[in-house]
Amino acid sequence: MSGVWIISEKRRQSLELLNIGRQLADKMGTHAAALLYHDREHAEDCVSHGADEVMLLPPLAGEEPAESRIPAIAEEAKKGDPDLILLSATPRGKNMAALLAARLNVGLVSSCTQIDYDEGSKTLVMERLAYGGAAVQKVVCSARPAMATIPPRTYETAMPKSGRQGNIRELPSPSSSAIKVIERKVKAKEAKDISEARVVVCVGRGMEKEEDLTIARQLAEAVSGSIGCTRPIAEELHWLPEELCIGLSGIQVKPDLYLGIGVSGQVQHVTGIRNAKVIAAVNKDENAPIFKASDFGIVGDLYDVVPKLISELKK
Amino acid sequence: MPTVIACFKWVIDEAYIRRGPSGDLDFSSVDYKIGEYDRNAIEEAVRLKEASGAKAIAVTVGMPEAAKGVKDALSRGIDEAYFIADSSFGNLDSSQTALILTEVIRSRIEHYDVILCGEGSSDLYAQQVGPRLAEQLGIPCISFVQKLSLAKDQLVAERRVDEGIEVITAPLPALVTVLPDINVPRIPGVKDTLMAGKKPTAKIIKDDLPPLSEPLVRTISLTSSRMERSCERFGTDAAEIARFVGSLRKKGVIG
Ligand SMILES: Cc1cc2nc3c(=O)[nH]c(=O)nc-3n(C[C@H](O)[C@H](O)[C@H](O)COP(=O)(O)OP(=O)(O)OC[C@H]3O[C@@H](n4cnc5c(N)ncnc54)[C@H](O)[C@@H]3O)c2cc1C
Ligand SMILES: Nc1ncnc2c1ncn2[C@@H]1O[C@H](COP(=O)(O)O)[C@@H](O)[C@H]1O
Asked: Cβ atoms within 10 A of the Cβ of B197, count?
């Protein structure tokens, strides 16, 4: 047995994984399979988007965490012996992938940004970032199956094709986990997706108070841009949702213009803006690392500079 | 009295890595540090110790130079350390590190209640030593935790998942990986640093361990990803602001 497996719980992510999964399966001369969580409609969707086979896991009882699916998935993987298993690099995807890799005792390439199959040597070569994004690390997995998590939006979603056939089957019920979920707090609102924004105004910790986000919003409006932020703004201060955090542990953006205000420009953040056409920054510290990563930099206090920028932009 | 173990890694400070002439990595002027998020793991161990009278142990696998990191961890309020050192331990993959930690924790630390790891190491950021260690020890793993408390035989944790937050209970012992917003790591004072020298450290060498496993992820190359930018500077007076906006317009990136 062999194959490329994707494991996913969200429609969009499964279709992204199927895109790269199907391409690799074709190159490797094997089939593509999707392992999904109890959604028939989604299963058929995966078939039309390239899955030759769909495995459905039954729903979980209320208190059971996603982890209670690990034993069933591991069993199936031992039986099916896939060449490669792909998951999305979301919090749950990363957690499930690490637990599954541990259970199978195989390598896992986290936050993999590129996968190539070398037909000559029949090896999968994967790329990821190391040292906060300062380095690109090329790796190979030395045990079967190879595993990787892929950040959402690394690949486009697969194209559907009518008339595709696939086998859909149910897997056994999940086991009971020692961990129990006693409460679920769902996020208030989904943030706007900024991974495709043309202009991004990024707020860093140089901003003193949450109320001051208003001036960042005014600036964003003046350049018809969207707001993004650094990790401390999202995660320590909780001023903006986590989906707007740009960088190694957040999202990658590729705007025409990135404008950072009060952003120091540590490598973990700059990694997320590498594909911006123009990088500009306002920071009061002339030695801030962001200036080495910028095309245009203003050395100054954002509270002085941003209002001036807004009025100049309105001219 | 509960026992809490914090796992940390002594890593290269990535801010000092330069791009070499042929796109290679220039490590010639680097400094080292305890991984950013491992400081949160250490702080959480010390916080639990202060809340419940626990003993806080730190464990690290690394090169002999990581002795500095052990002292740093002890100065942050940790009571005792296990230092597993060898000059070949600089480039282990996550599975090898997890196996070494498993071996040492299993054979030398008789009783423990909670193992804390960072969300990810600052250099590899593979985010898997914790889950692998838990799996090998046969204990539950709760990843990406932003709030943690210990009750009698269980822990209660708030963890981040895709949809928001889940509040989890797990029996002890358990392993937890922590997010940076769980706490604010303390900065050790002079007295803490002096005290650190007097605390016990068990040093474990390669010969004390079973033979090292093969890596499951092999690195075939490591190159610099830094990009050159034009780095033009502007001042803050009206003319400079106008020149800045003009430059953006000329590039065609704003209307
Ligand atoms: C494994 C790992 C992953 C990470 N992932 C990410 C990630 O995905 N995204 C991310 O952003 N970070 C990430 N980080 C954190 C990163 O290293 C930095 O700590 C973070 O980016 C810093 O955010 P900041 O620039 O907002 O804050 P700071 O570093 O505190 O910088 C604030 C800046 O504002 C300037 N400033 C202050 N006041 C003013 C003023 N009035 N006017 C103008 N400028 C002012 C200061 O000079 C300073 O440069 C990660 C770290 C690690 C270890
Ligand atoms: N060499 C090491 N020694 C001790 N703990 C480690 C080591 N490497 C990683 N860890 C722990 O495992 C976590 C995840 O590491 P990683 O899987 O490399 O991202 C880190 O935050 C540490 O808590």
From this structure: 10
Mutate to test the pocket of ligand 1, among B34, B36, B40 (most ligand atoms within 8 A of CB): B36
ipTM exceeds 0.90: yes
pLDDT, tens digit, 9 for 90 and up, residues A197-222: 999 999 999 999 999 999 999 999 99
For residue A21, which phi and psi values (nearest 5 degrees)? -60, -45
The answer to whether residue B247 is domain-embedded is no
Question: Does some domain include residue A175?
Answer: no
Token look-up 């190359």 returns B221
pLDDT tens column, B25-44:
999 999 999 999 999 999 99
A149 within domain boundaries: yes
| B237 falls within a domain | no
Around Cβ A2, how many Cβ atoms within 10 Å? 15
In A153-206, beta strands by DSSP E: 167-170, 180-186, 199-203
* pTM beyond cutoff 0.90: yes
Number of compact structural domains in chain A = 2
Domain boundary among A137, A170, A203: A170
User: Are A159 and A270 within one domain?
Assistant: no
CA end-to-end span of chain B:
65
Q: Residue B170: list chain A partners with CB under 8 A.
A: 178-180
CA distances for A292 relative to A200, A281, B29, B232, angstroms? 19, 10, 18, 9
Domain range enclosing A199? 194-314
Domain that holds residue B98: 3-208
Residues in A touching B214 (Cβ below 8 Å): 142
Tokens of B208: 């004390």
